[in-house]
Amino acid sequence: MVPAVPHALSITFSLTWEITWNLTQSFALSAVARAAVRKSTVVGSLLSYHSGMIADLYPDDTDREFAN
User: Fold this and answer.
1) At CA 35, angle to CA 16 and CA 58, rounded to 5?
2) What is the mean pLDDT of each run of 10 residues along the chain (68 residues)?
């Protein structure tokens, strides 16, 4: 039974790392997309009945650019 404990901890760490890594990549991709794409582009590409909900997510209609 003792060898099962390190194996279980190894699996737990592995799954935790996999989930954390995927979440980190997703948030980073989302931040890049949000910084690079104008609100009007996003709203214009969605169906008209969704545009009201999306417009509430973005505070302004300015172009977003990366800081150099």
Assistant:
1) 95
2) 88 95 94 80 62 58 55
